Amino acid sequence: MVLDEATLAQLGTSVISGRAIFLYGPPGTGKTTVAERLSELFRKESIWVPYAIEVDGQIITVYDPHTHEKVEGAGGLNGDTRWVRCRRPRLMVGGELTIEMLDLQFNPTTRYYTAPVQMRANNGFLIVDDFGRQRIPPADLLNRWVVPLDRRVDFLSMAGGKKLQIPFDLFVVFATNLDPATVVEEAFLRRIQTKISLGKVTTEQFHEIFRRACAGASITYDASLVTDVMNRIEHEFEQPLRACQPRDLINQIVWRSKYEQSKPALTIESLHDACRAYFLVKPEA
Fold first, then answer.
1. Which DSSP letter does residue 80 get?
2. Strands 52-55 and 58-61
3. Does domain 203-278 have CATH number 1.10.8?
4. What pTM was estimated for this model as a whole?
């Protein structure tokens, strides 16, 4: 990714800390992409995951083929086939997140429990994307995780009221385009010790991102045309330069060329067409 040295240093420090981080800033500044790239650092390693655990005769399934990527040919842990070797998990939850997903879910048909998202993400990475827009109110989510984020343990409730203590050993990233001060109270912000703001990019960064986007689409890069489109973005459409714009504009060019059955190319006409399709145009008075 194209990031400045100060932001890279903040991200590196947060990874070393192993603690939760807050990524915030306007839409299109790369918060989700940064979180996903950070998770790749963890997924280079593998861990042992139990298929299920047993508590007082009750079964809780932990291994989830949709969450855990199995390492083929690893066998069991010391020959114990109750364990499966997986890459460190990465879970992403967004607007679909509910309070029920944070606790054990009992299936009356199979008569066993399903582990919540944070339990399945243990020893891995959990991304809470678009924080503040979930079906669960932000205050409820924060109150639920105040203790786990601070003490690294979580408490789950079983059907009969029994409490189960489990490790909360995961790297949590909250990403939001809202002002954290308006959705998070001070006590919770204190527990998230790293807050990183991602905003508009510089002209140099915009050129580099555009160059990489062109290379990815096998389109010849032209710096003068990119300078022209930057001026249009800032002055005609009155938008700040954001990291998502080069890729999105290149996508518009590629889609248009497929429609016209022509080879995609970076021209003044193709860029102007892409901008008209991508940015909102103010209605004439």
1. B
2. antiparallel
3. yes
4. 0.83
CA distance 101 to 71: 26
Type of residue numbered 138: P
Question: For the packed helices 268-278 and 223-231, what is the interaxial angle rounded to 10 degrees?
Answer: 30
Cα distance between residue 267 and residue 261, in whole Å: 16
Distances from the Cα of 36 to the Cαs of 6, 23, 61, in angstroms?
Answer: 19, 12, 26
Please name the helix (run of DSSP H) or strand (run of DSSP E) that holds residue 255, with its range, or none. Answer: helix 245-260
What is the architecture, at CATH level 2, of domain 5-197? 3-Layer(aba) Sandwich (3.40)
Question: Of the spans 2-16, 33-47, 93-107, 257-271, which averages the highest pLDDT?
Answer: 257-271
**Tens-place pLDDT, residues 126-176:** 999 888 777 778 778 888 888 888 889 999 988 877 889 999 999 999 998
Instruction: Dig out the tokens for 13 from the structure.
Output: 């420090």
Q: How far is CA 88 from the centre of its chain?
A: 15
| Whole-Å CA distances, 132 to 66, 98, 128, 141 | 25, 12, 9, 9
> Which residues, 6 or more positions from 22, have their beta carbon under 8 angstroms from its beta carbon?
173, 174, 176, 180, 184, 189, 192, 194, 195, 196
Alpha-carbon gap, residue 4 to 223, rounded angstroms = 20
Q: H-helix or E-strand containing 246?
A: helix 245-260
Count of Cβ atoms closer than 10 Å to residue 104 Cβ: 20
Domains of the chain, by residue range, sit at 5-197, 203-278
Q: How many whole angstroms separate alpha carbon 32 and alpha carbon 92?
A: 10
